[in-house]
Amino acid sequence: MKFSPSLLAVLLATGANALGQNQTVSLTAGKGLLQLAGSGLNGQILLSANDWWGVLRVAEDLASDVGKVTGQNLTLGNWMAGGSGKRDLSAENEEEDRNAEGERDVQGRDVPTGPNGGGAGEGGTEFPEGGHVGGWGWGGSSTNGPSGTHPPSSSGHNATKMGSTGTTAYYNFNAVTSFVNYTVGPTQNFTGPTLINNSKAQTVIIAGTVGKSDVISQLISSGKLDVSAIEGQWESFISKVVTDPLPGVSKALVIAGADQRGTIFGLYDVSEQIGVSPWWWFADVPVRKAAGVWALDTIKAQGSPSIKYRGIFINDEQPALANWISANYAPGKYGVGYNHYFYSHVFELLLRLRANYFWPAIWASMFNVDDVENQPLADAYGIVMGTSHTEPMMRATNEWNIFGTEYGGNGQWEYDTNNASLIPFFKYGAQRAVPYGANSLFTVAMRGSGDTAITLTVPEAIEVLNNVVAEQRLILEEVFPETNITDIPQMWCLYKEVQGYYETGMTVPDDITLLFADDNWGNTRYLPLANGTSRSGGSGVYYHFDYVGTPRDYKWINTIQLEKTVEQMQLSYARQADRIWIVNVGDLKPLEIPINHFLDMAYNTPQWGYDSVPTWLNLWATREFGSEVADDLSSVVDRYGMYAARRKYELIDPTIYSVINYNEADAVLAQWATLATDAQAIYDKLDVAARAAFYEMVLQPVLGGQVVNQIYIAAAKNGHNSVQKRNSANTIAENVLELFKEDHNLTQRYHDLLNGKWNHILDQTHLGYEVNYWQQPMRNVLPPLSYVQSLETSLAGNIGVGVEASNATVSGDDSFHANSGNTLVLPPMDPYGPKTRYIDIFARGTAGCQWSLNSSAPYVITTPSSGNTGGNGVDTRVFVSIDWSLAPMAPNSTTVNIDITSSCANNTWGNYPAPNVQVPVNHTSIPSNFTGFIESDGHLAIEAEHTSSTNEVNGVSYITLPGHGRTLSGVTMIPVLAETQPAGKGPVLEYNVFTFTNTSVANVTLHLSPSLNQNGGGFGQYRPLKYAIAFDDETPQTIQFVANVTSELNNPDGWNGAVSDGVWGVSSGNSTTTSHNLSETGAHTLKIWAVEPGVIFQRIIVDLGGVRPSYLGPPESFRAGTDTVGSYDGTNVLGVKVNSTI
């Protein structure tokens, strides 16, 4: 879906607090609208005590959320049939007194061992046709699903206790008493809300679950509520104002869910609409006050989500989250205390984000062992529990490490040698999950010990895995005797080498969901082909926002570019990988923004199309911080995503950005400086109450990202200036030390927020990774710094001279120019190249000197042309420009000398001659009717979206992905399900170019997004990613730029470089470089075709012999018809004004 500015205006006008969702309530009164809260109204939410415990809990959250907004909570009323106050509480909802010692109050959460909090919500969007979900029927319910399916249930947990004035809801469970053999203890319970019987409060909201809630059944049977639009639909709900719904109720907002989570989402939908963010607790987003809440006279029928199971995976949780947990919760028997008090916050967050699926922390944790109340709490809340890709049958890795020996055998995590021990280990996990079967999704199969590959040959590994899965399915049939194995939700994650087994021919039962993993860097490795989309178990995607492994960990702060998430997940959805989407989120904080975005995409994938990120960000910013700052804030977060994703912080070092070519490093710093200024300006405008949330989600990432870039670029400049023996090398080194302190100060500021609520969340180290080693450093470490001896003068005098694009200095000797030479040469200048070049005059001694520059031609201008350096003076950058009106007429090439004189020692430069700088001046011209890109400095550089022309062939064409990639955008072919487009036959991207250099070897390098051969079959060889390229009438060259993978353990050649750089074409090898004969100068047409969908073009660089090393490439070339001589800057690839001081 394409979001126009007008649609954004509509979404904002109708209440953007519910991110992208249709509104059902308003904070503004209107004629005829039903008032729900405010102005002293004593309102209540009317429920039935026999509804799901999780529904009643969320209703209490909504009642509290209304109070946060209006100052007065709603109350909860219990609908009593006939108004007698008596009802039959038999069967599942037995009325019985509970042993007080067995009660667990998770609603109040007043827990002295950890942070506490309450609740509030996310919205919903109508899906007229629903998502394409299916299989496994009905989750979160004890009732059967659609006809023909009989999934596991979670029955027998809900209970009530009627008092004199109210009825209290309980969730009963029997905790395990052994972690080896399945035994349980006496009944315990979680205490839910108390519903007031025969309440006198005004009923303003009626809520409940179809087929479960008595009051909803009454509305349906009386004809007051038609639920046909949602009945039987997974996680759907309807919301509408009903007149005279019940005796004594003139009008009420009715929210009815098709199942437990449908009702929950409907309730939280209202919470979000009234301004309570899903992140109210986890990111401290404040609630804005309002005078009241009114229901709109509209009907909202919310269809099934696009993706059936949508969730997050807390992983790599040491040191940050583990340290935070240790500081806030009592330790568990076996380690860090990941208990149900903590997980109650996580589960609430997931439901407010309309997610339903969760993999718990694994490395220092055992979800079901750390706290035996964790699993029943998940079921009570309505969260579907799973385990990670490496933890089968609902058992944590550490359970085997700690309890595995209790099962006998050799103690090895090897099914082929120790299955007699592993089988009962697996069985225990299934038995433990049986009481919570409706909210259990079983991971099957296994990997090797410690999340590694099985140490067997491929045929042996496949045989073992087939045996493992067969046994696991026998176990599931045994522990769920009344359920067909095909109705028990199961997932097999094809992570790393396991995908290779699958592509080699490993068979998987049709009802098991295939969970395809990305490459850990956000690039899908395999997606189902047409013959794989009919499987009853379907398929899904395991995605990463955090990773520990090669080429290097990334787990400090947010480095996710939302545009890339959109592209990859839209591709996955189109290929029908729509059963499960789960994302590795590390410590959860500080990845709030990409988590929210990912789960919104999973809920309604078609709504968030390729150009939707600015709209989504604007709605997010409005919800969290208000419409007053939304435009500016959405721009800040969008730019941050591009800057942070260019190269993840852990991969930056002093060699990445060039400090001598194309002003690259200075341009990067300039972008970060502007971003920091903009973010700080927003922070300063916010109410004090909103600043903590803003710092957590926006300001710290911006300032932290800026400091990391400043540290490494300053270290590079220190190295460069040390090589040139500049005094300023020492100043820069001292600046790096100050930046190092600032990095710490930003962390400490975060940890001090809100009286230390989030202390330790930024404990993750991020500076000082070792070369060629992926693991985190044990301590933050600065890159090496150099100092020059500032008490002595250089042998070549008190000042030196350097030029753009060179490490050489004059006067004096170095390895970068001829010994005893006194001349440096600037890069060439022409009307279509950079507006300026630069010369540096710098101190390298103890005395100050006056200096002057004298050009041999009046049209070569130096600014400034004189100054003082050294002593109390500063280093000076002199800009060289050309007055083309005075230059020799085109075509003409000449070299102009600039002589440099100094007042020191009578213009002597130690024992060396005075320096001289030469400026090659090429006055070139083009025909007046030419439009397109013009060569300068021996190259052309083009942003892929700036085509001269493009076309459509048989419904196949190209679209621009705004904000995608490293500099501007991406261009890709649509539809993504298009057939192969043979070179020269499909739609083409054409670029008019004009060259002056005669060369038979013009090398064209494309910067392509680091996509992989995901188009299935034989390690991606079925339809590997390819493009074709040609100049003019050349025969197109077809290039497969992602190599075939010949082993299940390998990534394609160049992968390390591609994911590190964010593109194929920089350090990934020459797989995106082709050679062409451009012996004939003048106008040419460069033609590029995507042969397969999934190729994303970012930049095009044509090297005619003049390209110099850099990370992002040269600035985009002058474009005739768009740029004009004199106004075109062309000094840096990012098009920003860089700092003119050294």
Give an overview of the whole structure:
By secondary structure, the chain is α/β, with parallel strands linked by helices. Helix content is 25%, strand content 22%. It is built from 20 helices and 44 strands. Helix 2 runs parallel beside helix 4 (260-273) and helix 6 runs parallel beside helix 8 (374-381). The two termini are 47 Å apart. Mean pLDDT is 91; it is low at 1-7, 12-16 and 83-147.
A few lines on this structure:
The protein is α/β, with parallel strands linked by helices and 1142 residues long.
Question: How are the secondary structure elements laid out?
Answer:
Elements: H1 5-13, E1 25-26, E2 34-38, E3 43-47, H2 53-70, E4 75-78, E5 103-104, E6 158-162, E7 166-176, E8 184-197, E9 202-209, H3 214-221, E10 237-246, E11 249-257, H4 260-273, E12 292-295, E13 299-302, E14 309-314, H5 320-328, H6 340-352, E15 357-359, H7 367-370, H8 374-381, E16 384-385, H9 397-403, H10 415-433, E17 442-443, H11 458-479, E18 490-494, H12 497-504, E19 513-517, E20 539-544, H13 562-574, E21 580-586, H14 592-603, H15 613-625, H16 627-646, H17 664-685, H18 688-723, H19 728-756, E22 799-803, E23 809-810, E24 823-825, E25 837-843, E26 849-855, E27 860-863, E28 866-869, E29 876-882, E30 892-902, E31 916-923, E32 932-934, E33 939-943, E34 949-950, E35 957-962, E36 969-974, E37 989-995, E38 999-1008, E39 1026-1031, E40 1037-1040, H20 1055-1061, E41 1073-1078, E42 1082-1090, E43 1096-1103, E44 1119-1120
Parallel strand pairs: 3-4, 3-9, 4-8, 5-8, 9-11, 14-15, 14-21, 15-16, 17-18, 18-19, 19-20, 20-21, 24-31, 32-37
Antiparallel strand pairs: 1-12, 2-12, 6-7, 7-8, 10-11, 10-13, 22-23, 22-25, 25-29, 26-28, 26-30, 27-29, 30-31, 32-44, 33-43, 34-37, 35-36, 36-43, 37-42, 38-41, 38-43, 39-40, 39-42
GO molecular function: hydrolase activity
Biased composition (Gly residues): 115-124, 131-142
Keywords: Hydrolase, Signal
